[in-house]
Amino acid sequence: MDEGPLKEQLQSCSEGPFEVSDFVFAHRGAPLQFPEHTLESYSAARRMGAGVIECDVAFTNDKQLVCRHSQCDLHTTTDILNRTDLASKCTTPFTPASDNGTKANALCCTSDITEAEFKSLCGKMDGSNPNATTVEEYLDGTPYFRTDLYATCGTVLTHNEYISLVDGWNLKFTPELKTPEVEMPFEGYTQEQYAQDMIDAYKTANIDPSRVWAQSFLPADIFYWIANEPDFGRQAVYLDERVDTPAGYANATASIPNLAARGVKILAPAFFALTKIDNATGAIVPSEYALAAQKAGLELVTWSFERSGWLNKGGDYYYQYVKPVINNDGDAYTVLDVLVRQVGITHLFSDWPATVTYFASCFGL
After folding, report:
1. How far apart are CA 128 and CA 139, in angstroms?
2. Tell me: the pLDDT tens digits for 107-117?
3. Within a 10 A sphere around the Cβ of 363, how many other Cβ atoms?
4. Cα angle 343, 348, 354; round to 5
5. 348 neighbors 303 (Cβ within 8 angstroms)
């Protein structure tokens, strides 16, 4: 990390004290080293001080809610392809790579199986081998910078189990209603019912809405909660992926006043969209999007820390607008400092919560 006041302050906090912080949203638990959305991953996030833990919510064939990052990722995040009783139920069963260059392929969705069948699966580190000729080779695709040390058989969870677990820890919740990858309505199950079912689970468990940050990439879900579940809609988080292209970024920025007028309170783009380089000084400063959100009085949440490429090579996606001044791992904290002090983010998703908990404890977040 570059020498300076920020490094000195962080070094001064090396012996703690370290506190649980609601500033830290555990993205999928702690998936940098643990199978995502498993009991083990959530437990690791808790131990690292995350005050808010995420369940990405998908539905099964019998319309029950479970925790998965994507409705159709079971082939890379679980052992379903090794299960002879379930592999044939996949939308696309495993096909091996061939000599003509065709890559190995499979597609297994939560909607392919029942809740009971889902609960029989083992979670694994997300990954696959596109050159595999066998199921075993296909499943052995954990990225080299991760580990299978804790992936012996991750305990997958239903949404209700997640609620009970996190409530028992006296922590808070951030469920994301995953965009369906099957045509909706699904066997009569509508998007609105899906959105309502997620909220109903918290009401049934007597969870105070102030402990819940419901998320979605679909504006219609956010507007549904604002209109039909205002106590939960007040903290609904619009995950804004429109910023991924220059034109989309401009349109997203211009639309912020209208979103505020429609009752949206919290925006959450990827954190690259919240900063830029000041051409005159070379400093990292708030972006046009961030300034527009501030002007509209909207809260900003952002994602996802500890998910970037190598910072000594610019950091890839998450650092794309400030890449010319990113050259070492410590620059992650440099950007985080700008996000906190100048942009004013209130929460940050992280794949390894300890990194952000350290910062949050050091600065009293």
Report:
1. 5
2. 999 999 999 99
3. 16
4. 130
5. yes
